[in-house]
Amino acid sequence: MEDTEEQPRASSKRCTTNNTTKTKTFRGRAKGSNTTTTTTNANTNTTDQKNQHIQYHYHHYNHHDNNYQNRQLLQYSTNHQLFNSGVHGGGFFNQTQQQQQQQHSFHYYPLLPFPPPPSIPLHPALSPPFPHSYNTFLSKTHFQDLAFKHLNNNNNSASSAFQNTPAVVGNGIPSGTVVREVEDRRKTLPFKGSDERKVMGCSDNKQALVVVARRPDSGGVEGSVITLLANHFLVKFDSSQRIYHYNVDISPNPTSKELARMIKQKLVKENSALLSNAHPSYDGRKNLYSPVEFQNDRLEIYISLPIPSGSKSLHLQPLGEINNIDALGEKHLKLFRVNIKLVSKLQGKDLSCYLSKEGDDCVPLPQDYLHALDVVLRESPAEKCIPVGRSLYSSSMGGGRDIGGGAVGLRGFFQSLRPTQQGLGLNVDFSVTAFHESIGVIPYLQKRMDFLRDLPQRKSRTLSGEERKEVGRALRNLRVFVCHRETVQKYRVYGLTDESTGDLCFADRDGKILRVVDYFNDQYGIDIQFRNLPCLQISRSRPCYLPMELCMICEGQKFMGKLSDDQTAKILKMGCQRPRERKSIIDEVMQGSVGPTSGNQGKEFKLQVSREMTRLKGRILQPPKLKLGNGGHIKDLVPSRHDRQWNLLDGHVYEGTRIERWALMSFGGTPEQKSNIPKFITQLSHRCEKLGIYLNKTPTTTPQFESAQVLNSVSLLESKLKNIQRSAAGGNLQLLICLMEKKHKGYADLKRIAETSVGVVTQCCLYTNLTKLSSQFLANIALKINAKVGGCTVALYNSLPSQIPRLLHIDEPVIFMGADVTHPHPFDDSSPSVAAVVGSMNWPAANKYMSRMRSQTHRQEIIHDLGTMVKELLDEFYQEVSKLPKRIIFFRDGVSETQFHKVLREELQAIKDACYKFPCYTPLITFAVVQKRHHTRFFFPSETEDDLKNQFFDENIPPGTVVDTVVTHPKEFDFYLCSHWGVKGTSRPTHYHVLWDENQFTSDELQKLVYNLCFTFVRCTKPVSLVPPVYYAHLAAYRGRLYIDRSESSSGSGCNGRDPFSAVSRASPPVKTAPLPKLSDNVSKVMFYC
């Protein structure tokens, strides 16, 4: 059956009226048959009759096709047009009246809000005629479908005009009125199954390139076994359960998911017969899933929803209040047309086959069925919480907490349905995030902007150009509502007006020029106080203004900007729970009234969700033996402490450097702070000596003191840095130590200029740290300096070839590469993304790395210039080792599961292309994705009351804990490794997912390799949570981001050379991405980003 075109039709529409005295029906038959017609009489007043010059034409069509013969359609047509504005919701509008309305009342004016437009009941001419008894549905026979796009060409169609009849109107179209039912297409819609498969990697798929690596064994066996609990909850489903997927189209488009869910709730409540008594699940957008098939494949239903007045939010309003029409008043009804169309019929057998161990490896994950089940389990929580991505937040989980700067922290939980070795697992985790505080815009700016703290006391205050940009940046894309009149309409802030509120004028309906302040004074009796502040611009394309003091921030908006250090600390503190507390919160979610088991949707779809965490076996890998420098008393050690940390009190770094030529610059600082500099130099030099690092006790030149204002001027800063480079060591300075009074945005310019224009590595310190000068602080600074100048902290005593002799050999070098992409902040819609790739440059130690960075298209995740960067790193490797690597172990960060195939297909090919540029060079490649942003956590089980009191139960899992069964992928090669000790909160293991493995690692070999590498990170004396190549790539990408952010703002280009905060529409990404500044040759060969 073909889809029909959208036409102004009402072949089965109904309406009611309060003064209808007699109701009759129209019945339509095929051409040539007897046709019975009746009219509907209504008592209407004189005014209504003047506005209701409507002629109804009933056409009878015969339509023949291969599937249906003699199909009948009763079409209702008028000379009206369907008016789909958000004001009227939906209805029919007389053409003459529409033109009159457009001339007098539907112009757009450069001022919002005007007095609220008339709400339902609509004008009588706007209401389509429906029988009064709207709960009695006509037989499906009278509403059979027709491909409307063929109607215009149907020469056999007959029509007959009926006498002019005034429209029967009342107080609006009743909620739940079905206006169109369509012949179902059960026989024409096949179930999704094997016939539709397109499997990556299968031989019958011509476009397939690669297959994700399969698990090489049943899991690793090395290490001591421990019992753990994972925050995965087993979900059992009936593989015979069919799920019917419907597309939902609501007109006018709901302004929020909350409103869409309200419409769905009322639709289900009042149309249970049409929905086969099902309780479908809805994602708040376009997708509706039902466990049974509806009576018809296409439905068109009108829902009139009472919208409460005033500033009360629609958010999470109980259904009982929604339907309380008497309490809210019918004058606030709003009409929505809901079109429901069957899209597909999903079967669970494919998912069951995918999860089974005996299943075919070529069977792809049935994402559609899995997504449907995920929507089902999110249905109840989404109705009670604020959804943000895959997390849901509720004040019932401890309430909000003020974190300052106009933001509040809210607690919630994350949930996601995942395929695992045990079957479907529901991953549930505790979550905390920041939301904008729902207060007035003026108080919000007081909290957000330090320079506006005294705004109420200085109402005549104006904004400078820079202040105006900061205010625009803070308010951009926020949703607000007005408090000077009753409305629930929300507006999005697109920018600020160029003129102040007192100077802003607009033309009224008669063309008269009015001042904004005069309008609000005359219309609402409001005297605008902050007349020198700009208005909010709330339209993309038209000048629509709102004074700031009349606006409130809407609740439930995630804080998308960058949090301050203080805000970040408070959010981290809110989310920093020890394992016992975190486990308790997750258990409460699963048992509570807002969690995924709180509703009845699971039962509707035959789902059984366990309320107990998954019990599994993990393994603790042994730490490697480490090698230190020859000059110390201790030359090797095994990290035997429970946290696997070691110290260098009696040992030297593995490779210490000699720093003969260095200088010191000071930016700001009090005289007292500056007086600590000689002591700092002496103690730092002494600490370096103890670590086996030589730092000349006397800087090449005397310390240079500059004002902190120098950091605000790029040209002046560059001049100062070049001058000290020339004067200090004849242009051959090894290190520049920079002391700062406080954190400064000029830090980015300092790094960029020093590493690109000047050619010297820098180490920055805050004066506040110089007052303590603890041994730990000095050691940390010394390790970073040593790495930046070319040294390394530690090496593995037993080299990697000796630990993995089956694959690795001394004479066959291996390169370890890491890659990451960093993107601009969410509200930046034009800045480039930055990709970084690092590679190890020594073998078999594999503890020194070089980096390459590139800018690329805005928010592009695939690394565009990966082949070139890999080629350059291979060239550098050849220069250092005199051989090209036999194997490439490539770790990729920042890739979500939905991008696995795309990243593997494109980036693996880029790596291979780079290798092809060397003659006869085909190394074996392993490509693994590294994920930290996941929500799997592991806990120790509590068997008895004594366990609950035991301190060990509240400890984190130890370093070296690996899990590769039960909650991992059912077929693919992945594992969780917690390589670090969690000092605060609950440890988050790193998830390693191997996408491609030509080296054919076993589980034990790869897990041991990754864990051992985590001990070689140069900045600390403990194993880190992330494999070092990825850690370094992340640091390098962040450094490239600093280059872009400050170079753009310093040059005044902003967003493509325009002011992004007065613009009406969002900017488009630039066509050509500006390249990063080129690193100095001597800087590019060291780990300057550490």
TrEMBL record:
Annotated GO biological process: defense response to virus; regulation of translation; regulatory ncRNA-mediated gene silencing
Keywords of this entry: Repressor, Ribonucleoprotein, RNA-binding, RNA-mediated gene silencing, Translation regulation
Spans annotated as Disordered: 1-46, 1048-1072
Protein name from the UniProt record: Protein argonaute 7
CDD domains xref list: PAZ_argonaute_like (cd02846), Piwi_ago-like (cd04657)
One GO MF term attached to the UniProt entry: RNA binding
SMART domains hit by this protein: DUF1785, PAZ, Piwi
A cellular component annotation (GO) from this entry: ribonucleoprotein complex
Organism: Linum trigynum
